[in-house]
Amino acid sequence: MDIQIEKLTKTYGPQTAVNDISFDVKTGEVLGFLGPNGAGKSTTMKMITGYIGIEKGDIHIGGKSVTNPSNDLKKHIGYLPENNPLYLDMPVMDYLEFCGSLQGIDTLNIDKRIREMIGVCGLNREKHKKIGELSKGYRQRVGLAQAMIHDPEILVLDEPTTGLDPNQIIEIRKLIRDLGKEKTVILSTHILPEVEATCDRILIINKGKIVANGTPETLRKQAQGNEVLKLRIEDGDADLILKSLKELNTVQSVEYVQQNQNLFEVQSLAEQTSKRHIFNLCVQKKWVLTELTPMETKLEDIFRNLTVN
Ligand SMILES: Nc1ncnc2c1ncn2[C@@H]1O[C@H](COP(=O)(O)OP(=O)(O)OP(=O)(O)O)[C@@H](O)[C@H]1O
């Protein structure tokens, strides 16, 4: 089920939390929603899931507007809210049964779905405990299980891996990736490697506005600008190598990374690559090129550039 967000706006008193944003999410896509604290991620997710009303703009899910109550779209959506509200006095199994029945799962299937979710979310050892007795990570797993219990076509997950241990993080990321092959998934996170590991596309929001929208590679390319290469060239005098690299007609600048290690950083001119020229230079001078690494812009740097102001 595709989601289309059109000119969505939400204000709280004088503050505009979400400011005229538009984007699409397609079936079979995992969209990573990034942004600093207070950027408007949770507010957007709450509007998509119908948890809060829309003030301006519209959201279409499978072509139908969420503003029309007769469309009854909530059954297609699984939602893990940011603070993962749970009934602490209920045992895990009872809670999942309750959530399943609220979602309209029939009694024949409910036990099967609960067993599946207990397995998928690693809750087997804790399934008879009251939720209030569970550790933070296990509560998060219960929140994920309730979001998925009715096998929804759309999953909206607000910081799904918060509080999970490293093993479970890897399992949940894999699960999200697998689910994302068939479903529509939107997840918010502050963990940037998580976005790279899980998401097909990244949306960065800052102060209620979208400031970036694309695959990690596209965002890198946009931020990267000129080619930057890290080189180690051995069997030659460092100063002579530096001078010769500077003379290449594709090179804009050359700096030492570590002079005594013959390590250099070469920046090429716009739209140019220097790899072949560097290789040929080394052959001609009988120097040995032992390292040539393209330097990629880190997602952290892209995020900081777009959101620090
Ligand atoms: N119920 C509310 N009443 C007043 N202001 C609110 C309310 N909910 C959110 N806000 C404000 O709207 C802005 C966006 O909040 P939101 O929770 O959407 O941000 P977020 O991107 O999810 O942040 P975080 O990463 O910290 O969870 C914030 O400045 C917040 O204080």
Automatic annotation (TrEMBL):
The keyword ATP-binding applies. SMART domains: AAA (SM00382). The lineage of its organism: Bacteria, Pseudomonadati, Bacteroidota, Flavobacteriia, Flavobacteriales. This is ATP-binding cassette domain-containing protein. Gene3D superfamilies: P-loop containing nucleotide triphosphate hydrolases. GO terms for molecular function: ATP binding. SUPFAM superfamilies: P-loop containing nucleoside triphosphate hydrolases. Belongs to the ABC transporter superfamily. Residues 3-232 form the ABC transporter domain. It holds the Pfam family ABC_tran. Keywords: ATP-binding, Nucleotide-binding, Transport.
